[in-house]
Design a protein that fits this description.
- There is one protein chain.
- The chain has two domains: 59 residues; 196 residues, Vaccinia Virus protein VP39 (Rossmann fold).
- Helix content is 35%, strand content 20%.
- The chain contains ten helices and nine strands.
Length: 272
C-alpha cells in the first residue's frame, strides 16, 4: 500500500476523516503531514501498514485519535495523552488566552485544578516563566502524565500536588485559580460519544454544575485580594455559572466565548 492509497482508506477528499488519516500516517511514518502528498507514491512497510490499519480500526470504534497516537497538540505544546487523561480540546485554549489577558502581578501565583495532561498549567508556564504555577489532580496516574509533559518541555518551575480541588492547599493563596472541571450531566446526550474518555473528568452532579460550584466557594478562602477564578464550562451553562459567581459575592463576572461563538469560560474577581 502506498501513501496515496492509505490516505484514501477512509473519508471523502477534504474531509476531517482524511485529515485524521494524514495525522495518523504522520505519527507512524514520521513524515510531516504536509509532505505526505509530495511522497504519495512511497510504499508503506508491512509494519507501517499494519499499524495504520489497526489505528484506523480503533478510531472507527470510537477512540480519539490522540489515544491512538499517544499525543495531542495544545497551545504551542505537544502533550502526551493516555486513557487516564482527557484529550485536551482546542476550545480550552480560550481559557489560557483569558488568563494571559488578566492584569496579574509579574510574579503571579496560579493554580490549575484538575490539570489532566497539564495542558492549561504548562501553557501558562511556557508563556509566563516568572509566574509560580501549581497543577493539581485527584488521580495519581493522571498527575504522572502531567509531570512527564512538564519534563518534556523543560517546565521545571511547575509544581504538582495530588488532591481534590483546593483541599490540599491549606492556607496558600493564589492570584488566579483556574480549572477545566467536569461539567457534563450524566444524562447528557453527548456522553455516548465520550465513552472512551475517563468519566471522572467529564461528569458532575447538579446538572454538571456541582464541581464548578465547589471551586467557586472554596476559592474564596484561597484568593489574594482582587484575585480571579477562571473556569471552563459547557456551551449552555454561561447563565448558571455567572449566577453562581454573583451569588458567591464575586465581581467583574463575565463570560468569554469559544472559537465557535459559544459560552465557554466564565471569570469572576474576589471583592475587597
Amino acid at each position: 500500500m502506498d501513501i496515496q492509497e492509505a490516505l484514501a482508506l477512509r473519508g471523502e477528499p477534504e474531509s476531517y476523516e482524511r485529515q485524521e488519516n494524514a495525522w495518523l500516517l504522520e505519527h507512524i511514518t514520521k513524515i510531516d503531514a504536509f509532505d505526505l502528498v509530495m511522497k504519495k507514491d512511497q510504499q508503506l512497510t508491512p509494519e507501517q501498514e499494519q499499524a495504520y490499519v489497526e489505528g484506523l480500526a480503533r478510531i472507527a470504534a470510537g477512540e480519539p485519535l490522540a489515544y491512538v497516537t499517544g499525543s495531542q497538540p495544545f497551545w504551542t505544546l505537544d502533550l502526551k495523552v493516555t486513557k487516564d487523561t482527557l484529550v485536551p480540546r482546542p476550545d480550552t485554549e480560550v481559557l489560557v488566552e483569558t488568563v494571559l489577558k488578566l492584569d496579574l502581578p509579574e510574579d503571579a501565583r496560579i493554580v490549575d485544578l484538575g490539570t489532566g495532561t497539564g495542558a492549561i498549567a504548562l501553557s501558562l508556564a511556557s508563556e509566563r516563566p516568572n509566574w509560580s504555577v501549581t497543577a493539581s489532580d485527584i488521580y495519581e496516574p493522571t498527575l504522572e502524565v502531567a509531570k512527564y509533559n512538564a519534563e518534556q518541555h523543560d517546565l521545571d518551575q511547575v509544581q504538582f500536588i495530588l488532591g481534590s480541588w483546593l483541599k490540599p492547599f491549606g492556607r496558600q493563596f493564589f492570584d488566579a485559580i483556574v480549572s477545566n472541571p467536569p461539567y457534563i450531566d450524566a444524562d447528557d446526550e453527548h456522553m455516548p460519544d465520550l465513552a472512551t474518555e475517563p468519566e471522572r473528568a467529564l461528569v458532575s452532579d447538579k446538572n454538571g454544575l456541582a464541581d464548578i460550584e465547589m471551586i467557586i466557594q472554596q476559592a474564596k478562602k484561597h484568593l489574594t485580594v482582587n484575585g480571579w477564578v477562571v473556569l471552563e464550562h459547557g456551551y449552555d451553562q454561561g447563565d448558571a455559572v455567572r449566577h453562581l459567581f454573583t451569588q458567591a459575592g464575586y465581581k467583574q463576572v463575565r463570560t468569554v466565548k469559544d472559537y465557535g461563538g459559544n459560552d465557554r469560560v466564565t471569570i469572576g474577581q474576589l471583592g475587597d
